[in-house]
Amino acid sequence: LLLRWRRRRGLWRKVKEARQRQERSLVQMEMAVRRFREQHPSVNMISILSLPLPELSKKLRDGSLPPEHVFYAYVGKALQIATETNCITEYLQESETQVRKAKLTGKLGLLYGVPVSIKDSIDCQGHDSTLGFIKNLNKPAAEDSVVVQVLRRQGAIPFVKTNVPQSLISYDCKNLIFGQTFNPLLYTRSPGGSSGGEGALVGGGGSILGFGTDVGGSLRFPAAFCGICALKPTGNRLSKKGITSGVLGQKAVAAAVGPMAKDVESLALCMRALLCEDMFDLDSTVPPLPFNEEVYSSTQPLRIGYYETDFFTMPSPAMRRAVRETKQLLEDAGHTLVPFELTNVDYVIFNFCVRGMFADGAASFLKTFKGELEKSSMGLFFWLAKSPHWLKTVLSWIAKPFVPRFSSIIRSMRANTVDEVWSLHCEIEEFCHQFIAQWKKLNLDVMLCPMLGPALGIGYPGKLSVAVSYTMLYNALDFPTGVVPVTMVTDEDEEKLKGYQGYFRDWWDRTLAKAFRGSVGLPVAVQCVALPWQEELCLRFMKEVETL
């Protein structure tokens, strides 16, 4: 008992030190901005912050805007948003040196002088990548991840790291070290996750370009909840070297790293910058596909598949309306829209996603929590994961008639043999080929799909893991998918929500109805999907949706 008490005290000491470091970071930002303002009282910070990224980068490159002016304008704004939402975990103070040196480099990259924010789990040399775990504190990364190296070579200036939920396997944004991050649009709402700190910072205007990761919607939830755009590319289009994932080694559900920004043009500029020789040179496992300008700038009418529901998570009235209105606008603009029949999403979620990610009975996932202080937010999950195989079987059988979805989750969390995992991988591959065959039969270019929204209240995502169905489907398929905000919740949507019952009418459906309530004025997005490696077409479609 004494040993345990001492260990706990040691852990709490580490937490306290990390929080003090976080506070010091904000003080350093404040002092840096104050110093700059005293030396340059005439710089109009507000006009700098109002520039969209393509325009800002143009001014930086042609010399009409000095990098320091842009840098300190964003440090100031980021500090404000961090104070309001608790989204920043660390200030990368060496970025101040990088800004000073920026003018001395002869080569101006595509992102010259652009300050960028980085998710906690993406390695930046000399800084922790905690994933919200105490055991990962005081273990600074030995080198930059490939994405960060390429950003630096393109002239970008990584200046902060942002908050995540513990383990990343969540679409909220809270951990025991840095606490809860809040949605900048409404503080009682979640910013989404796991790239929640990025969503809050970019959504609040404190960063013009952010980077996150996505294994079930972790770029798309924060973008949708905070009213911004994001692109989840095909898993291997951008390098994941130097990026830690929530469940190491699992290959059933594809993770991806991608950008978040206020508009689509910014995402395109970012992809142009990243898909360069440096990226392919630093990580030769990434296919050397430079950005295809022709596809992105094409104006040919598109053939677009669409669906309003996946028949697993009933869409909120605003989600349904978002797809309908976008479909109408696209048709009016001369595009062809074709209904797409989605089937067996429940099977995909339970059998491919849950079973695929926790094929070892969640043993490696549980191992990451070993020696940590608190697991309360995932209490039931832990209890289930630790239960012996026979108990899972019995519970699944008992629960099936009353709560079929809960029964399926229990069944999906048992440990698999190696040949079962292999046949699961075969099944996922087969499903992907069938999905593409259906897509090709309809002769589609892209697909328009719902995106979960509006932003759920804080604490709700943890209770509603089943609601990842709209996003996680495209991790199982490994298709590039982007999010674009298209509308806001209206009084009429709120009224219609009173009749929301869900497809299963279980505890999850009732909880989701509650989580959607009271959201008038909050943004709602749609997902834009393309076939693997077609990021440029995906962005072109997103741009079309955004323009309309």
Automatic annotation (TrEMBL):
Pfam families reported in the protein's UniProt record: Amidase
Residue positions binding substrate: L168, S194, V215, G216, G217, S218
Catalytically driven reaction(s): tetradecamide + H2O = tetradecanoate + NH4(+); (6Z)-octadecenamide + H2O = (6Z)-octadecenoate + NH4(+); (11Z,14Z,17Z)-eicosatrienamide + H2O = (11Z,14Z,17Z)-eicosatrienoate + NH4(+); N-tetracosanoyl-taurine + H2O = tetracosanoate + taurine
GO molecular function, one term: fatty acid amide hydrolase activity
UniProt-listed InterPro entries: Amidase_CS, Amidase_dom, AS_sf, Endocannabinoid_amidase
PROSITE patterns hit by this protein: AMIDASES
Gene Ontology biological process terms from the UniProt entry: fatty acid catabolic process
Residues annotated as the enzyme's active site: K119, S194, S218
EC number from the UniProt entry: 3.5.1.99
Keywords on record: Hydrolase, Lipid degradation, Lipid metabolism, Phosphoprotein
Domain Amidase, first and last residues per copy: 73-539
Family according to the record: Belongs to the amidase family.
Protein name according to UniProt: Fatty-acid amide hydrolase 1
Species for this entry: Nipponia nippon
